[in-house]
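Blinded run. Sample ID left blank on purpose so nobody reads anything into the name before looking at the predicted structure. Input follows.
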Amino acid sequence: MLIKILAVGLGGFFGAILRFILSSAILKAYPNFPLGTLFVNVFGSFLMGILLTLNFENENLKLFITTGILGALTTFSTFTYENIVFLSDNNIKFFILNIILNLFFCILFCYLGILLIKKL
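Blinded prediction complete.
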């Protein structure tokens, strides 16, 4: 059990760093809308679809990548907070747009990741 916990924790360390780097770069390019969160959620969903369709022989590696890296890379708490900010700013248009884009593209790209692996 300790190895599984360490695998998730170490993966989370790398996923959080990756999330920070990607989100910061995208936020710098597009400061008015949280495209960084959208990107990491869509990208992470795509990778999750791919990875969970593969058969991992090593359970610890699977936990490291999926629960650790991708769990830290994609975070629903940031998405939720950004939507609360839109609501508190009375920006209903961005509130609705952000919810629709995140849900639609994350579901779509997770499915595309599954299809990609099944076609190989």
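Unblinding after everyone has recorded impressions. The CA atoms of residues 44 and 99 lie 16 Å apart.
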